[in-house]
């Protein structure tokens, strides 16, 4: 079993095998996450899917405060290294690496990726995490893509963390298709309702998922769940 805590937007802390993995920390600039103190967030690893501000805003501070290892693609990892992050591990699409929490694979995403200062963030991606008790997919920001079917061929996913906010990423209909493509019936929604552009009808999203026989989990900010 793993514990997953939601910090808003696309930010999740996942505890696996005694290790804490923080994905795409955008907390302090998010008004909806004002009750969350980043000083209290401790991570062993900080994983960044792509370079946009709403996915990297708190990464430097949390990484340094926690003495965590930052994992992302080569361009983003190198950018943070120049900002004084001492522990980092660069990856790229299709590559995998075994860490003490399990095996991590950096997989395709279709999305732009520019860092806050205008530097190139390389190619956006997502992560598949294999651990002793299971496997899950963190999609990052992405459109629906047939490449997702490769994940079903390679992995047995327990759940997928998928964007559902539409406009900049998949909406709920494409997220349901993505769940089919990757071979899971359990979706944890992210990247919705933070900004006006991605505000959605939550009841309609839940209904669409139910009709497709998918479990759609929408966590409150600060809420934890055991999976």
UniProtKB/TrEMBL annotation:
Cross-referenced NCBIfam families: PRK00685.1 (NF001911)
GO terms assigned for molecular function: hydrolase activity
Species, as recorded: Belliella baltica (strain DSM 15883 / CIP 108006 / LMG 21964 / BA134)
Domain Metallo-beta-lactamase: 8-191
One Pfam family hit: Lactamase_B_3
Listed SMART domains: Lactamase_B (SM00849)
Stated family: Belongs to the UPF0173 family.
UniProtKB keywords: Hydrolase
Keyword Lipoprotein appears in the UniProt entry: no
Gene3D superfamilies recorded: Ribonuclease Z/Hydroxyacylglutathione hydrolase-like
Record-given protein name: UPF0173 metal-dependent hydrolase Belba_3122
């Amino acid at each position: 079993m793993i514990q997953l805590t939601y910090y808003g937007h696309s930010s999740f802390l996942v505890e696996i095998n005694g290790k804490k993995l923080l994905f795409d920390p955008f907390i302090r600039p998010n008004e909806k996450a004002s009750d969350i103190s980043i000083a209290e967030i401790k991570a062993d690893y900080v994983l960044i899917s792509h370079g946009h501000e709403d996915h990297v805003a708190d990464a430097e501070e949390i990484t340094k405060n926690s003495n965590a290892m930052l994992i992302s693609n080569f361009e983003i990892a190198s950018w943070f290294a120049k900002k004084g992050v001492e522990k980092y591990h660069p990856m790229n699409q299709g590559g995998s690496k075994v860490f003490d929490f399990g095996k991590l694979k950096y997989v395709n995403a279709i999305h732009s990726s520019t860092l806050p200062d205008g530097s190139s963030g390389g190619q956006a991606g997502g992560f598949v995490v294999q651990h002793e008790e299971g496997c899950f997919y963190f999609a990052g920001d992405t459109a629906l893509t047939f490449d997702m079917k490769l994940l079903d061929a390679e992995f047995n996913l327990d759940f997928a963390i998928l964007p559902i906010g539409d406009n900049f990423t998949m909406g709920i209909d494409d997220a349901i298709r993505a769940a089919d493509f990757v071979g899971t019936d359990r979706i944890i929604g992210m990247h919705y309702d933070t900004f006006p552009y991605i505000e959605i009808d939550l009841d309609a999203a839940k209904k669409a998922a139910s009709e497709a026989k998918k479990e759609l989990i929408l966590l409150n900010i600060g809420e934890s769940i055991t999976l």
